[in-house]
Design goal:
Layout lengths: L12 E2 L9 E2 L7 E2 L2 E2 H5 L1 E4 H6 L22 H18 L3 E5 H4 L6 H22 L2 E6 L18 H20 L4 E4 L5 E2 L7 H22 L4 E4 L9 E2 L4 H10 L6 E6 H6 L4 H10 L3 E5 L18 H13 L8 E3 L10 H28 L1 H9 L6 H7 L5 H11 L10 H10 L2
Parallel strand pairs: 1-2, 5-6, 5-14, 6-7, 7-8, 8-10, 10-12, 12-13, 13-14
Antiparallel strand pairs: 3-4, 9-11
Helix pairs in contact: 3-5, 5-6, 6-7, 10-11, 11-12
This protein binds D-xylulose and cobalt (II) ion.
Length: 438
């Protein structure tokens, strides 16, 4: 083993709920079975390269604060290789089975595309070796098509065809390495695919270009034989004022319109849902009911701040309701619970990286257990089933099966005189049942 970056911290162990050790799991026991499946396999945790390795904790008012000994500031392949070792040491010690990257988190930008590709090849070879040494797998890869100034007007939706080609070349390369590293999926998040003012934007043309771009990606996937899933990650705003993939429904509509639906699923992120004015469970339900629930980016926002704060998900109501939806739709298959989350600027030590992931993993373990208990309890499900019972027979069933007409509905209503058996929605009762399990 090369130089250790976290020499004082060993593998994080499960110590049970009474443990006061900040560097131990209290609830996440990877081997514990929930609904007959291990927590490891339910949750499929992934660590991200960008926040965990690269985030320095800078903000608009101050420099980075984070202690990250692998960040020497050289911007070289040598530095990137050291960072890869730090990443795998961290991911092994925290006990996450997966990790995720953007191409440019892994290796430095070159002066030309050819040089960037060369840098990426050099570091990705090291990733391959580290994956085989540790057994850690790639959940998904993606291309960072938003940092470089050439992407100022977007990537696939840029007004410039030249920029489109750079973006396509980057995705091509990132897909190749995702495939080579056995990635379970590949993510498209529209970093700057959107606009700031319609005064300078031909929106229809930009959307057509995005559709073309994704069709090219589907064709290339087939060409190289990549069998992983394609995921689109909705986000309504930031960096642009209006991002095209604004929420789950908008993404599904876009995919349908451009004939892409069969090739994509969604990667739903909590903070993005909140920025769209939606709950995480709403977004999961929209994706799940369309058969397109692929993966999640686990984090949360702050109700008092209006932007993408990407905090570690520690809210048990959030994790329980997230896991309820995921279990309802049969669990995560090629997706996972990916910590697209960053420690606060004030939490700048190396230890905080572990503590934050432990907090998120324990919160998801509790959420999973609560969701399983709610399902076993059956009162909430039973209530919902019973609420719709008028559709199971008679006029309801004839409407559902497409046999009834407006005239039949009118005849039914006239015969009834008035609706007599409307029942309470019992929101407070259901919330208190949820509380019983949290
Ligand atoms: C940005 C975001 C990205 C994607 C991957 O808000 O969530 O990190 O997850 O490009
Ligand atoms: Co994300």
């Amino acid at each position: 083993m090369s130089k250790q970056f976290f020499p004082k911290i060993g593998n994080i162990q499960f110590e049970g709920r009474d443990s006061k050790n900040p560097l131990a799991f209290k609830h996440y026991d990877a081997d514990e079975l929930v609904e007959g499946k291990s927590m490891r396999d339910h949750l499929r945790f992934a660590v991200v390269y960008w926040h965990t390795m690269r985030g320095a904790g800078g903000d608009m008012f101050g420099w980075g604060t984070a202690q990250r000994p692998w960040q020497t500031g050289e911007g070289t392949v040598r530095e990137a290789v050291a960072r890869a070792h730090a990443m795998f040491e961290f991911t092994s010690k925290i006990g996450a089975p997966f990790y995720c990257w953007h191409d440019r988190d892994v290796a430095p930008h070159g002066k030309t595309l050819a040089e960037s590709n060369k840098n990426f090849d050099a570091v990705a070879k090291v990733l391959k070796q580290l994956q085989s040494d540790t057994g850690i797998r790639l959940l998904w890869g993606t291309a960072q098509n938003f940092v470089h100034p050439r992407y100022v007007h977007g990537a696939a939706t840029s007004c410039s065809a030249d920029v489109f080609c750079f973006a396509a070349a980057q995705v091509k390369k990132a897909m190749e390495w995702t495939h080579e590293l056995g990635g379970q999926g590949y993510v498209f998040w529209g970093g700057r695919e959107g606009y700031s003012t319609l005064l300078n934007t031909d929106m229809k043309r930009e959307l057509d270009h995005l559709g073309r771009f994704l069709h090219m990606a589907v064709a290339y996937k087939k060409k190289i034989g990549f069998k992983g899933s394609f995921f689109i990650e909705p986000k309504p705003k930031e960096p642009t004022r209006h991002q095209y993939d604004s929420d789950a429904a908008a993404c599904l509509n876009f995919l349908r319109e451009y004939g892409l639906l069969e090739h994509f699923q969604l990667n739903i992120e909590v903070n993005h849902a909140w920025l769209a004015g939606k709950t995480m469970e709403h977004e999961l339900e929209v994706a799940g009911s369309a058969g397109a629930l692929g993966s999640i980016d686990a984090n949360m926002g702050d109700y008092f701040l209006g932007w993408d704060t990407d905090q570690f998900p520690t809210d048990l109501y959030l994790t329980a309701q997230t896991m309820l939806r995921i279990l309802k739709y049969g669990g995560l298959k090629t997706g996972g619970v990916n910590f697209d989350a960053k420690v606060r600027r004030e939490s700048f030590t190396l230890e905080d990286l572990f503590i934050a992931h432990i907090a998120g993993m324990d919160a998801f373990a509790r959420g999973l257990k609560a969701a399983a208990a709610i399902r076993k309890d059956g009162r909430i499900d039973g209530f919902v089933k019973s609420r719709y019972r008028s559709w199971n027979a008679g006029i309801g069933s004839r409407i559902e099966s497409g046999k009834a007409t407006f005239a039949d509905c009118e005849k039914h209503a006239l015969a009834l005189g008035e609706v007599k058996d409307l029942e309470s929605g019992r929101q407070e009762l259901l919330e208190s049942i949820l509380n019983e399990h949290i």
